[in-house]
Amino acid sequence: MSIRDNKLIKILAYKCPRCGLESAFEKQTGISIFAIPRMKKQCSNCQFRFIKEPGFYYGAMYVSYALTISEAIITFLIAQQFYETTFDPRIIGVISIVIVILMWYNYKLSRMVWLNLFKNHQF
Ligand SMILES: [Zn+2]
To answer: What is d(CA 93, CA 33) in angstroms, rounded to the nearest whole number?
Structure first.
Protein backbone atom coordinates (compact mmCIF):
# COMPACT_ATOMS: atom_id res chain seq x y z
CA MET A 1 0.00 0.00 0.00
CA SER A 2 1.59 3.21 -1.12
CA ILE A 3 1.13 6.64 0.37
CA ARG A 4 -1.14 7.47 -2.57
CA ASP A 5 -3.71 4.99 -1.26
CA ASN A 6 -4.14 6.90 2.00
CA LYS A 7 -7.57 8.51 1.87
CA LEU A 8 -6.65 11.37 4.22
CA ILE A 9 -3.57 12.28 2.16
CA LYS A 10 -5.63 12.17 -1.03
CA ILE A 11 -8.18 14.56 0.52
CA LEU A 12 -5.54 16.94 1.89
CA ALA A 13 -3.63 16.95 -1.40
CA TYR A 14 -6.90 17.41 -3.40
CA LYS A 15 -6.12 14.27 -5.40
CA CYS A 16 -8.52 12.09 -7.36
CA PRO A 17 -10.37 9.79 -4.88
CA ARG A 18 -9.97 6.76 -7.17
CA CYS A 19 -6.39 6.84 -8.47
CA GLY A 20 -4.82 9.55 -6.31
CA LEU A 21 -2.65 10.70 -9.19
CA GLU A 22 -4.28 13.85 -10.46
CA SER A 23 -5.40 16.99 -8.65
CA ALA A 24 -9.14 17.61 -8.71
CA PHE A 25 -8.52 21.32 -9.18
CA GLU A 26 -7.13 23.29 -12.10
CA LYS A 27 -3.67 24.70 -11.58
CA GLN A 28 -3.95 28.34 -10.63
CA THR A 29 -1.78 30.87 -12.34
CA GLY A 30 -0.68 34.31 -11.28
CA ILE A 31 -2.15 36.05 -8.26
CA SER A 32 -4.79 33.57 -7.27
CA ILE A 33 -5.67 34.72 -3.76
CA PHE A 34 -9.00 36.17 -4.94
CA ALA A 35 -9.66 33.69 -7.73
CA ILE A 36 -12.20 30.94 -7.07
CA PRO A 37 -10.43 27.57 -7.44
CA ARG A 38 -11.81 25.75 -10.48
CA MET A 39 -12.55 22.07 -10.37
CA LYS A 40 -11.70 19.74 -13.25
CA LYS A 41 -14.59 17.86 -14.87
CA GLN A 42 -12.87 14.49 -14.63
CA CYS A 43 -9.59 12.79 -13.88
CA SER A 44 -7.49 12.47 -17.04
CA ASN A 45 -5.81 9.36 -15.60
CA CYS A 46 -8.79 7.18 -14.57
CA GLN A 47 -11.76 9.19 -15.97
CA PHE A 48 -13.29 9.56 -12.49
CA ARG A 49 -15.86 12.36 -12.71
CA PHE A 50 -15.21 15.14 -10.19
CA ILE A 51 -18.41 16.98 -11.15
CA LYS A 52 -21.12 14.41 -10.48
CA GLU A 53 -24.21 16.47 -11.28
CA PRO A 54 -25.26 20.12 -11.16
CA GLY A 55 -25.50 21.26 -7.55
CA PHE A 56 -23.58 18.27 -6.23
CA TYR A 57 -21.28 20.49 -4.20
CA TYR A 58 -24.04 22.47 -2.43
CA GLY A 59 -23.75 19.89 0.34
CA ALA A 60 -20.07 20.75 0.72
CA MET A 61 -21.24 23.96 2.36
CA TYR A 62 -22.08 21.95 5.48
CA VAL A 63 -18.53 20.58 5.55
CA SER A 64 -17.17 24.07 4.95
CA TYR A 65 -19.30 25.42 7.79
CA ALA A 66 -18.00 22.76 10.19
CA LEU A 67 -14.40 23.48 9.13
CA THR A 68 -14.84 27.23 9.57
CA ILE A 69 -16.42 26.91 13.00
CA SER A 70 -13.67 24.50 14.11
CA GLU A 71 -10.99 26.90 12.91
CA ALA A 72 -12.72 29.82 14.61
CA ILE A 73 -12.84 27.93 17.92
CA ILE A 74 -9.16 26.91 17.63
CA THR A 75 -8.20 30.50 16.73
CA PHE A 76 -10.20 31.79 19.69
CA LEU A 77 -8.50 29.38 22.09
CA ILE A 78 -5.04 30.37 20.82
CA ALA A 79 -5.74 34.14 20.60
CA GLN A 80 -7.29 34.15 24.07
CA GLN A 81 -3.86 33.42 25.57
CA PHE A 82 -2.54 36.78 24.31
CA TYR A 83 -5.26 38.94 25.88
CA GLU A 84 -5.87 39.70 29.54
CA THR A 85 -9.64 39.25 29.59
CA THR A 86 -11.32 35.98 28.70
CA PHE A 87 -13.16 37.58 25.83
CA ASP A 88 -11.47 40.58 24.26
CA PRO A 89 -13.49 41.98 21.31
CA ARG A 90 -10.26 42.20 19.28
CA ILE A 91 -10.30 38.40 19.10
CA ILE A 92 -13.23 38.70 16.67
CA GLY A 93 -10.90 40.61 14.32
CA VAL A 94 -8.23 37.93 14.65
CA ILE A 95 -10.81 35.20 13.93
CA SER A 96 -12.09 37.13 10.89
CA ILE A 97 -8.59 37.44 9.45
CA VAL A 98 -7.89 33.74 9.95
CA ILE A 99 -11.20 32.78 8.31
CA VAL A 100 -10.46 34.97 5.27
CA ILE A 101 -6.94 33.54 4.97
CA LEU A 102 -8.27 29.96 5.11
CA MET A 103 -11.25 30.68 2.81
CA TRP A 104 -10.03 28.89 -0.33
CA TYR A 105 -8.38 26.13 1.67
CA ASN A 106 -11.79 25.43 3.26
CA TYR A 107 -13.51 25.68 -0.11
CA LYS A 108 -11.25 23.05 -1.67
CA LEU A 109 -11.05 20.82 1.39
CA SER A 110 -14.83 20.77 1.91
CA ARG A 111 -15.37 19.79 -1.73
CA MET A 112 -12.80 17.01 -1.43
CA VAL A 113 -14.44 15.67 1.77
CA TRP A 114 -17.86 15.81 0.08
CA LEU A 115 -16.55 14.09 -3.04
CA ASN A 116 -14.95 11.33 -0.97
CA LEU A 117 -18.18 10.78 1.00
CA PHE A 118 -20.15 10.17 -2.20
CA LYS A 119 -17.47 8.87 -4.55
CA ASN A 120 -19.13 5.47 -5.01
CA HIS A 121 -22.61 6.88 -5.64
CA GLN A 122 -24.03 6.56 -9.12
CA PHE A 123 -25.54 9.78 -10.35
ZN1 LIG B 1 -8.10 9.45 -11.14
So the answer is: 20
10-residue stretch averages of pLDDT, the chain, 123 residues long: 78 93 86 79 93 91 96 95 87 95 94 92 68
What's this model's pTM, rounded to 2 decimal places? Answer: 0.85
Compute the distance between CA of residue 16 and CA of residue 34 in angstroms, rounded to an integer. Answer: 24
Question: What is the 103 CA–ligand 1 centroid distance (Å)?
Answer: 26
Q: What separation in Å is there between the alpha carbon of 9 and the centre of ligand 1?
A: 14
**How far is the centre of ligand 1, averaged over its atoms, from the C-alpha of 11 (Å)?**
13
Distance 13 CA to ligand 1 centre (A): 13
